[in-house]
Amino acid sequence: MTDSQALVKTLDFQLNIQSDNESLLYDATLEARSVYNETTRLAKEGVDWNAIPDRVADDANLVKNTTQRVVAKALGAMENYYEYDDFGLPSHTKGGSYPLRANYEEGYNLSLTDDGDVAFRISAKPYKHVKGVLKGSDAHLDILKIALENDEWKIGTAEALFHNDNAELHVNVTNTEQTVRDKHDSRTVVGVDVNEDNVALTALSEDGVEDTLVIDFPEIKFERHRYFTMRKRVQNAGKDSIHDTLEGREERFVRDRLHKVSRHIVEWSRQFEKPCIVFEDLKEMRDSIDYGTRMNRRLHHLPFRALQFYTSYKASFEGIPTAWINPEYTSQRCPMCGHAERANRNKKRFKCKSCGHQDHSDRGASVNIAVKGVKKLDWNVPALNSLPVVRKVRRQASGLVDSPTVTHPTARGYQADGQVGVSD
Ligand SMILES: [Zn+2]
């Protein structure tokens, strides 16, 4: 039996820099990259890991605790590589910016303003600060404001980084009262595959696949495309204020739907014995390897991280832990025989080139994610002789759920358009 753990969240914000020195922050992230590279290079050379922090710190033009945090992260990546072979051998020759990691009240500080904003101050270089206010989703801002005012919450390390040329701050907060069951004390793993128009869920226990569900939300995709077209049109006409209004509306619409879907995921997961919800780690991926066009498209098409965040946040308040796995090959691998090939998949239809297994491709991906989750928790992967039929529910714009329809059992193959179903 393992102990339950504190509820920890990473909150993501955009930095609205008001001190007119954004380039200073960017320079610091370049410096962080050279600290990361130097640490990795020394570790590969076989230098004693205990000696590395001092050797690197002497040359780094960063606040001391920030240098230490970046060194620790680089060594952590090396350790992960040796222990789990997780994301490939860390590179020490990459250029560009690297997240600036800092301790709260040492490398960075936060405070509530009279206007209800959260002001930040980041020590980018020794004695040089970057200041402004945080922008971000209501969900993240709300938690941060609560954390700043409430003793139950502790604010931890943060990372300042550039994403698509925008400065961001990712802040770790911990709720010291609320606990989440240790993920190693789980009996069921729920693999979650997030797509532009659905999420596919598979619950896997030591006995095999317990159940599987696809939640369709075509209206999110539809509305996002509709808003995109409208925004383009008013932008071309030079009507920026309407553009911003539309963007706000779209954001609220999508956020509202994603909240409902994430609640649904947690509700569904709760029915299983000691569940652990498993997601693909899209954050790590962006920094490490190019996973090809499908993944890049997925990264940009839906606020995946928002859905993952809402789900893990709601789950943790039910005491349900979440885990993250490397997304490599989850959409191409055959869940039955393990054969991985891009051609196995054709949109929503999966047909294994090796064993002929047919499936709904997103459901197949969710099985693969669950299997990776099981491996991560160090269980034996159960033999998957057959998979249950794919049940689909659809989230209507009203938020109501249609009664479930049952599609063909996988042995008979899955209809690619998902519309033809055998009712139960
Ligand atoms: Zn196969």
UniProtKB/TrEMBL annotation:
Pfam family, one: Cas12f1-like_TNB
GO molecular function annotation: DNA binding
Occurrences of domain Cas12f1-like TNB (ranges): 304-369
Xref: InterPro entries: Cas12f1-like_TNB
Region annotation Disordered: where it falls in the sequence: 400-424
Keyword DNA-binding among UniProt keywords: yes
Entry keywords, A to Z: DNA-binding
Official protein name in the record: IS1341-type transposase (TCE31)
The organism of origin for this protein: Haloferax elongans ATCC BAA-1513
